[in-house]
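Annex B. Sample input.
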Amino acid sequence: MPPTVLRMTTPATRPKYEKCVRPYFLAREETTLSTGEVNISTFEKRCGTRRKDLCEPCSIVWKDDAYFALMTGAKDYQGKITFITLTAPGWRRYGKAHKVTQGDSNFSTCPCKHRHKSDDPLVGLPLDKNNFHHRKVVEFNHLAPRLTAITLQKIWRLMATQNATSIKKVKRPTARVMEWQDRGLLHVHIIVLGEIPEAIVKAAVLGRASQSKSRSVSPTSHKGVRWGTQLDVKHVDGKNLDETRKLSAYVTKVISYAVKDVTRENTANHPGHNAHRQTLRSFTNSVISCSATPLQCRGADLGDNPSRILIGVNSKVGLCRKHYRGKHQLGFTGNVLSLNRSWGSSLGAARKARQTWAKSEAAQTADKAGCLDTEKKLVTHLFLGRDPLKARKLLAIREAARIVSRSGVFTPLLT
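Annex B, continued. Sample output.
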């Protein structure tokens, strides 16, 4: 990985990549075809999570990868860059919740008539859990990615109409980061490599009345879900050095949202927030649909007759990957960071650059660089079931003399 991403300017500022606190132990058995010798090797693999609450060392590595991916696509762009923040609807749709009060105005108090600071554990909890629409929260989080895509499509259409050109010519590279708010609802942060007028964003999100030379625009919606009335649009100039620093600061801020869990650190073990999250998660199986059968996933749809009894189903059937992710992420099943294909970089490219850097001579002088994974994949060649003679010829061509026969993954350490 380039030194600029790792912020390695002097030995005093070198990053210290600590060991993963919950690594996977990988075992691999290799058989040399020419001699028949069998070697068994075991090594640790980082868990690679982005969540700071699970593994802070891996969260730091993920954060550097995300910064590399975002800045690689934007560093050479010479023009206006647009930052868009889209929010969820307010209390009228989901119910009242405790909120942070700002200023000394009497109108800035919480609905409970008290004042709350940002670190108050009550912030985000419903005033009345019986009148709070938990299912609607899960539905919004589940539909938020598609709602974001539809909003961007409408923005491109409005820009194409305004400039009298095609949508293909006005589309710009975009990056999207999701952030959980205290209520459990998602906010969306979008970075666009191009200038998007604030009036067009507002028209696409909130709608617009008909004008003398244009038709009315309806607010963006998807399956009855819409954005909130609060949105933010900012611009920076990629040609201006001071503005570029703002871009770096904004990207760093947005990435800090991505490494957060679905709740704040000071409420991770709060009884009220635990109960609130569990109530939200109780609706995920009914909101999220997957292609698995009830024999494969406990959250799979049972069809028109939910009371149908499946004889012989193992009681230990777990959740599929989609339901498992949605259960933890309160209905959201996608990736927190998403870059479109025209961005020019990706998290995969960032990881590959980091692995290449970890093998380089420059990494030998960096503190804790040895804690980084250097292998891209566990299994590189698999020749099971092939004719040995053909396998030897293929191995000779590739100048490799080993065949992977078995490999396994053990449970990560919990200490």
